[in-house]
Amino acid sequence: MVMQLTVYGDKKLEQCKAFIDYLQSTVIYSGAKLPTLSEDQQRKFSNYNSDYAILVGFSRQLSKSIGASLTPALDQINQIRVAQDYMSKRDALQQSIGAPNLLGQQIQSAKSQAGASRMALKQPDDLKAVYNQVYDNIVTMPTHVLMPAILTTSFIQDLVHIRYFVQAQDNQMSVNNNSVQFPHISAGYAI
């Protein structure tokens, strides 16, 4: 029985060391897109696969949410080059307004879920130190960076309002390249 406990303890120690090595050599440098574990890695990390799943789950949810909401909204903004674009892109911009708000909610939800799962982990101190560093790189920092960027909602709304202004001035102004001219004012204004 003592022999079984020793073998079990050694095996768990080997799994922990292998997982720490993987986190330090691969995950910490992988950025937002985490690699999927191979069958061999899953076998080596056995007891720590669920720990890794927390990081992967957050990373995938973040990528999916950004791809479905923020990326299309920024693509719409990038297509506005001249004054006429305000008119032609208005409907697409209007549809993009709610996307960043939804993204903020999705990121907060994914972060809360990852945080709750992380708090439930039972890790040895040496693993906990490395895991916390990786968690900060994968979950905490991207969240802190993205949340202010999500405030682009007000910027998108401003672009839609510019379109309404341009439309309201339709008979009183002309657009030539990047310049808006009002007949009753002699100078043009560049956009």
Outline the biggest β-sheet. 3 strands, antiparallel
Q: First CA to last CA: what distance?
A: 80 Å
Unreliable stretches: 1-8
Q: Which overall shape is indicated by the principal axes computed on the Cα atoms?
A: rod-shaped
SS content category? mainly alpha
* Order of neighbouring strands in the sheet with most strands: 1-2-3
- What share of residues is helical? over 70%
Run of helices and strands: HHHHHHHHEEE
Total E-strand runs: 3
Account of the protein in words:
The protein is mainly alpha-helical and 191 residues long. It has one domain (52-190). The protein has eight helices and three strands, in the order ααααααααβββ. It has helices at 2-25, 39-45, 49-78, 83-88, 90-96, 98-119, 125-149, 152-168; strands at residues 174-176, 179-181, 189-190. A three-stranded antiparallel sheet has the order 1-2-3, with no helix packed on it. The longest helix is centred in the N-terminal third of the chain and has 30 residues, at 49-78.
Observed structural traits:
191 residues, mainly alpha, three-stranded antiparallel beta sheet, 8 helices, 3 strands, disordered N terminus
